Amino acid sequence: MKKQLVIVGFALLAGLFSCEKDEIKIPATPFKTTYTIDFEDVALTNKGYMDSINGGLISQGFTFENTYLFDDYSKYWYFSKGFAVSNLVNVDSAGFNNLYATFAGSGAFNSKNYLLATNNAGIKLPSTAQLVSMEITNSTYGALSMKNGDAFAKKFTSNDKDFFKVWIKGYAAGKVKDSLEVYLADFRYADLSQNYIQKDWKTVSLYKFVNIDSLNFSLESSDNGQWGMNTPGYFTIDNIKFIK
Q1: Where are the domains of the chain?
Q2: Distance CA 20, CA 213 (A)
Q3: Which fold has domain 29-243?
Q4: Is 125 exposed, middle or buried (0-12, 13-18, 19+ CB in 10 A)?
Q5: pTM across the whole model
Q6: pLDDT string in tens for the chain (244-residue length)
Q7: Which of 205, 140, 135, 194 is nearest to 163 (CA)?
Q8: Contact present, 202 and 235 (Cβ < 8 Å)
C-alpha cells in the first residue's frame, strides 16, 4: 500500500512539473492599452474652429482628411471635404453660417473640442490600432434643417418616413471589409414618440472593424433632389477610442 502511495505521489509531482514546464513555454499575451483621441490638444483661435489643416489633422498616428480649396469664380477659399476642429457652442442658429457647431452643445462628456465631418470624409489608421468606439451626433446646421426645413431641404415628418444616417465603412487595401449604419434622425416609427433627431452624443462600437487601414463616412437621407441629398451633409464626432 505504501509502495502504491509513493508511486502515485511521484506521478502527481511529475504531472505538476510537466504542467509548469508547459506553461512556461506559452507566450505571454501582449498588454493592450486603450487610448482616446479627444482633440483637446488642438489650439483654436478666437473664431472657434480650424477648417484649413495642411496635410490633414494627425493625432496618435491617425490622419483625418482635410480638403481646403480655392474657388476661382468667387475668389475665396473654402472647406470642401473631410474634418474641421471646432469648439463652438451654438444649438440655436440655423443655416450655413452656423456650419461648425455640434447640436450636442459641447464636445463629448462636456469637453471643448470635437470634429465636424462632411460626406465621404476619411480617416487613415496606423497598422497597430484596433478601433473600440467613437461618439457621434448631428451638427446644429443639419439638425435644425431637419427639424424646421430650410430653403434647400424639407422638414422631416413621420408621414414621409424621413431619415438621416451615416454609413461607416472599414477599408483594407482599397476594399471594403465591413460596414455599419448609424441613424442621426429617424422618423420611420409607427409610434410617433420614438421618432427623433439625435442631439446628445451617441456611443458607437467599432469593434467589428478588424485589420483595416482606413475608415470612410458616407451620408444618406430620405430627402434628395436633382443634385443629390438636400439635407445638409454634415455631422460631428469625438472621443475615438482604440487599443494597441
Answers
A1: 29-243
A2: 40
A3: Jelly Rolls (2.60.120)
A4: buried
A5: 0.86
A6: 444 444 444 343 444 334 444 444 444 545 689 999 999 999 999 999 999 999 999 999 999 999 999 999 988 999 999 999 999 999 999 999 999 999 999 999 999 999 999 999 999 999 999 999 999 999 999 999 999 999 999 999 999 999 999 999 999 999 999 999 999 999 999 999 999 999 999 999 999 999 999 999 999 999 999 999 999 999 999 999 999 9
A7: 194
A8: no
